[in-house]
Amino acid sequence: MNRFLVFAASLVLLAGGAAHAGTTPADPNAHVYIGWPNDGQAMPAGRPFRVWFGLRNMGVAPAEVEFPNTGHHHLLVDTDLPPMDQPIPSDRNHLHFGAGQTETMLQLPPGKHTLQLLMGDAHHVPHNPPVYSKKITIYVK
Fold this sequence. Notes:
InterPro entries: DUF4399. By secondary structure, this protein is mainly beta. The protein has one helix and nine strands.
């Protein structure tokens, strides 16, 4: 009976661990970051501004392209990280760059905003381990 309990507990732990990330492997040294704007930056209201994405120890590939150690960018605007074992939502807070883009023009209303990058695999699911940037705050004035 003890072996059965240990086996059952192991299955629960394994299942729980699987829910924390997707199945596509990423280099544990991969690093994604927002190169511009900087944390705390004030941006002009009423016109688009450039946001560029940086990535190290990993490649960029368009969505639906399955190639080892690659993914594509998702820009999270004014939101927290989504579940790491599901496809990243696509809405006004989760912007997809499935063509392999490494920058965009963004226009936001006046106020305080947060930006964060999250890499997704060919099917928009975060990698294992997840590759995401520090969340930055910008001010649109």
